[in-house]
Amino acid sequence: MKKSYLIFFILCYSVNAQNIKASSVKKEMKRVANWQIDHFRDTYSGRKKPHHIADWTNGALYVGMVKYAEIAKNKKYWKWLKNIGEQQNWKLHWRKYHADDHVVGQMYVELYRKYGDKEMIAETIKGMNYIIDNPSKEPITLDNYKHLERWTWCDALFMAPPLLAKLANETNDSKYTTFMMREYEATKQHLFDFEENLFYRDNSYIGKLAHGNKIFWSRGNGWVFGGLTLIMDEYEKDSEAYEYFKDIYLKMAKKLIDIQTPQGHWAMSLLSQDVYPTPETSGTSFFTFGLAWGINNGLLDKSTYLPHIEKAWSSLCSHITKDGMLGYVQPIGAAPGNAWADKTEVYGAGAFLAAGAEIYKMLKK
Fold first, then answer.
1. φ and ψ at 245, to 5 degrees?
2. DSSP three-state, residue 111
3. Structural domain count of the chain
4. Where do the TM regions start and end (predicted)?
5. Residue 17 pLDDT more than 90?
């Protein structure tokens, strides 16, 4: 009897450990992508109006939607993205220096790469050139939200640096890389905790403890970790830029698998799992995306990291509703908080699609 039970347990474990198939990943991505497109102009995070189409929230969605469009083999997703660019007249959002208003430019570059129309990136190049030629003189600190012209909060490292890396690649002009790396290093020195290998959301959290632990916001670090992969995609593996970002990436990756919850997600306050037991899918999606990318690009050992990716993906998929909505996405915020099974956000869907795309590539290999 005991022997039969042991065999049954081993068989069940083997099935559970290998239950992610490329076809099922693509199916879940399609459900989430289609639901989000159908509900694109809904209101989220308690706002009275839908997000502006060039808002950072949607910019993160577009990053994931581009990655899904590349594997979906259905032109409707490219057409949907292209329509967004046309509605916006291929312009960045309204604030010249604010990183959140630059992220939509990442989609423009990807559409330019597909369609070859220089009009798609002309305004983006113009906007980034202005910033480089007229760099902000504001401090790197974030004081009561007064200083937002530089990358003074860690989310910004997803929004602007990948765009500058893409422009460096497309224009073959090193000025974008030079500016980007200088500003990135300033933010790293300001917000990176060299003991924990995680980023503070902004300087208001440096030196503070909650429940005896330092406060590292899950989605904030997810922005950084996902952004690192987008940057490294634009550089040769032996380049100075690639090596710089790889160093940060590997330190974060090692830390992340050490603090993943037994349920597969990451706690909203990364070092306080017991205080924040509620699942949260936006940070978890970004981490899953980044870890799967690392295996696909030969930076992470598959035998070590794959079980963590499988566990995270299973957790994420368990929070998709029957209709295709990704639940448990923390609303707009700047710190650990609450998430609910019946609430979502566009950036959560974007992060999920990015994660699925990398897992799909990994499994297809």
1. -75, -30
2. helix
3. 1
4. none
5. no
Q: Report d(CA 178, CA 164) in Å as an integer.
A: 10
Q: Do residues 68 and 77 touch, judged by C-beta distance below 8 A?
A: yes
**Could you tell me if residue 4 is inside a domain?**
no
Question: Mapping DSSP to helix (H, G, I), strand (E, B) and coil, where does residue 192 land?
Answer: strand
Give the catalytic positions in this structure.
155
Is residue 75 situated within a structural domain?
Answer: yes
User: CA-to-CA distance for 189 and 341, rounded, in angstroms?
Assistant: 37
At 80, give phi and psi (nearest 5°): -60, -45
Q: What whole-number distance in Å separates Cα of residue 217 and Cα of residue 206?
A: 12
CB atoms within 10 A of CB 258: 9
* CATH code where residue 171 lies: 1.50.10.10
**What was the pLDDT predicted at 4?**
41
Segment 11-37 shows an average pLDDT of 79
pLDDT tens by residue, 127-152: 999 999 999 999 999 998 899 999 99
Q: Is the dihedral of CA 96, 140, 188, 218 positive or negative?
A: negative
Report the Cα 333 to chain-centroid distance in Å.
15
Residue ranges making up the domain that contains 122: 33-364
Q: Transcribe 343-364 into DSSP letters.
A: ---HHHHHHHHHHHHHHHHHHH
Half-sphere exposure of 249 (CA within 13 A, CB side): 26
Q: Cα separation of 264 and 112, whole Å?
A: 37
Residue 198 inside a domain? The answer is: yes
H/E element, 132: helix 119-133
Q: Which residues is 192 bridged to in the sheet?
A: 199
Tokens for 6, please give them: 């042991």
Mean pLDDT within 242-271: 98
What are the structure tokens assigned to 145, written together? 């939200």
Q: Which of 206, 202, 195 is nearest to 223 (CA)?
A: 202
Q: Is 352 contained in some domain? A: yes
